[in-house]
Amino acid sequence: MPRTALITDADGIAGVALLKHLLDSTSKDEWTRIVVNTRSKTHGKTNDNRIHFIDLDFSRRPGTLIEHMTGPCASITHAFFCSYVHKESFEELNKANAELFENFLLALTATASALENVTLLSSSKYYGSHISPVPTPCREDDVRRGDPADNFYHAQEDFLTMLQMNQTWTWNVIRPEPIVSAAVVPGEFNIALTLAMYFMMTEHVVEEARMPTNERCWNGIAAFSDAKLLAEFCVWAAINDDCAQQAFNFSNGDHLVWRFVWPLLADQFGAYSTPDQIFQKPEPVRGMLQQEFSLVEWASDKKAIWDRVCEETGILEARESFSSASWSELDSMFQRSWSVNVSVNKARKFGWTGIKDSFDCFVDAFEALRQENVLP
User: Fold this and answer.
1) Fewest CB within a 10 Å sphere: which of 14, 45, 67, 367?
2) Same-domain pairing of 49 and 75
3) Which residues face 247 on adjacent strands?
4) pLDDT per residue as tens digits for the range 28-85
5) 265 and 136, same domain (yes or no)
6) What's this model's pTM, rounded to 2 decimal places?
């Protein structure tokens, strides 16, 4: 049965990957139409006539959205919600993103008469592990922790399951670990770009590429999600009848230990780092936030250095990448004194076999960023 997809944010990291997967890895017999919500002109470069572009603002009320979605979205069978809005305060962030999804889902269900599945791209932050330590590995049926008002992923999922009751369409929730991608999206966590810039600048000034973290995080584990593999998984779950009404964790299927992988990542750019990094601050108590130094502060006077790196390599357009670096997001990750890991056993039990070496994931992203002249 031919399908029609809706990707709600093809300008974001996950949306870019989903669109590329559907274009590159599926046929017109499988997906006859791909409705893409975007404000970007770059997607128009493709000559695939399956794409239909729309520009929707899901912060608007459902009634207004229905007016714009009635025609373009009538044939939607599978919707992938990847949208996110950033706010500085926790209260505003949670309220805005809960409403964003509610507006979208109410408008979609009122206009998409052929709807079969809604996939909500959530996050491993669902477990509250970005706020404080939680039992790991996190499992899909874990008891919720923390104040619900501090976690909009709970509100989004509750609204999805409530609205689906007694309906013929199904739902999926995907909770990925941090996504590694070569897509550079202002306001999103561009981890590969930011690490690459840090290593390139420390190499340029002949400075040790120290990891701006604490001793517990340095010796702890981390897991990541390759954007391409995540897109493949989202589509796999959405069209697999056995996966209906299920939430799934997602990661590459392995984990890294920072003290061993950090020097390997630095070496990709000729920067010096050692697994025997010396920490000036005492090892923190688990649950504390601590860093040897802040990347935000470190990067505050580094624009001229980045410009020199780009000029010496002749890739002048890469100078603009400095404004897309995610220094504060890396600070938030590296200041934790606890490790975060999710179990992907449930996905395995349902038949998922995909895996990606997380070190290769970063190396591939670095290479793609270079090919696009985002990095010099």
Assistant:
1) 45
2) yes
3) 173
4) 999 999 999 987 755 545 778 999 999 999 999 999 999 999 999 999 999 999 999 9
5) no
6) 0.96
- Residues linked to residue 179 through DSSP beta bridges, in sequence order: 225
Q: Which of 225, 182, 178, 193 is nearest to 357 (CA)?
A: 225
Q: How many residues does the chain have?
A: 376
Question: What's 321's DSSP letter?
Answer: G
Neighbours of 159 (CB within 10 A): 17
3-class DSSP state of 176: strand
Q: Is 373 exposed, middle or buried (0-12, 13-18, 19+ CB in 10 A)?
A: middle
Tokens in use for 175?
A: 């909770």
The span from the CA of 218 to the CA of 212, in Å, is 9
**CA separation for the pair 360, 12 (Å, rounded):** 22
Q: Most distant CA pair in the chain: distance in Å?
A: 63
Question: Exposure string (b/e) for 215-226, b if CB count within 10 Å is 16 or more?
Answer: bbbbebbbbbbb
- Please check whether residues 219 and 142 belong to one and the same domain: no
How far is residue 257 CA from its own chain's centroid?
20
Residue 59 covered by a domain: yes
d(CA 313, CA 194): 18
**In the predicted structure, residue 127 carries a pLDDT above the cut 90:** yes
Place of tokens 């939430």: 247
28 is in which domain, residue-wise? 3-178+226-250
Residue 350, in any domain of the structure:
no
Do 244 and 111 share a structural domain? yes
Given this model, what pLDDT does residue 41 score?
A: 55
The single residue listed with the structure tokens 């609205």 is: 163
Helix (H) or strand (E) holding 93: helix 90-111
Nearest to 212 by CA among 226, 227, 194: 194
Please name which of 7, 105, 96, 92 lies closest in space to residue 52, comparing C-alpha atoms.
7
And the tokens for 131? 């706020």
| 152-170: pLDDT as tens digits | 999 999 999 999 999 999 9
Smallest Cα–Cα separation from 179: which of 142, 233, 110?
233
Question: DSSP class of residue 304?
Answer: H
Tell me if 76 sits within 8 A of 118, measured CB to CB: no
- CA nearest 12: which of 32, 49, 37, 41? 37
The pLDDT-based confidence of 146 (bands split at 50, 70, 90) is: confident
